[in-house]
């Protein structure tokens, strides 16, 4: 303290940042980062959360939890990198760790446990739903959403991340925490399963199959 | 299928259809893929079917938007945490 007084009397200019101001500065920086990089993704996160939970309130809670966790662990985020993928990873983990447990649903067998493993390189094309037929194009959003909802959550996730949000395989691998090869094979199986479900709807509306 | 060109391998081209549509091929691979597609009407047909499917999903899956107050609710919660 004496030293400080001496410095002041000697008319030396010093900059003193008190701990409270320093903390406020960090908080403002965090808030700015949130406004600039995180909040713009709130609708995409909500859409993902809704398709995982099918419940508006749960989706709200999940998005809220995601942002709170992001705030708490902000130090592990590198500014200017992929904020959207980072937030999606937090949301996906929160869903797996908390919401699926809360829902008290009987545990489902992972679809991939009962499907014979097929290496991504050996994937064969099995598409037989011709989306160019008018009757298929005539399916309404509700029917397509219902078909998506019928998919196992792991399949639903990759379709939403890839086809709706446009994430790359590499980003998806990081979000879901699986190898890229598994992303690819899971995406393939998810799409084929979805086609089968959509074909069931389309058949009811007069879809004509000429193969399979 | 195009049998006139022995170098063309339908199964190889078709295995890359999803990669091409998902933007996972390098520029070089994408150019090669395009050349192969033009060589074979069967492969081109399969590509167009998959392309339609992807577009179909993008157009038909209902996008839900968060309610306008959600961001503010989150801001308030974060402000509370900061105070505590």
Instruction: Give the oligomer, counting copies of the same chain as homo and different chains as hetero.
Output: heterodimer
Spatial shape of chain B:
elongated
Strand content of chain B: under 5%
Class per helix and strand makeup of chain A: mainly alpha
In helices, the fraction of residues of chain A equals 55-70%
> Uncertain segments of chain A of ≥5 residues (pLDDT<50)?
106-127
Report the sheet with the most strands of chain B, covering strand number, pairing sense and barrel closure. Answer: none
SSE run of chain B: HHHHH
Helix content of chain B: 55-70%
Distance between the termini of chain A: 87 Å
Q: What is the averaged pLDDT score of chain A?
A: 78
Total count of strands of chain B = 0
Describe this structure as you would to a colleague:
The complex is a heterodimer of chains A (212) and B (84). Chain A is mainly alpha-helical and 212 residues long. Chain A is built from eleven helices and no strands. In chain A, helix 3 packs across helix 4 (56-72), helix 5 runs parallel beside helix 10 (169-176) and helix 8 (141-150) packs across helix 11 (180-204). Chain A is elongated. Residues 106-127 of chain A have low confidence and may be disordered. Chain B has 84 residues and is mainly alpha-helical. Chain B is built from five helices and no strands. Chain B has helices at 10-15, 17-21, 27-39, 41-60, 70-83. In chain B, helix 3 packs across helix 4 (41-60). The termini of chain B are far apart. The relative contact order of chain B is 0.11. The mean pLDDT of chain B is 88.
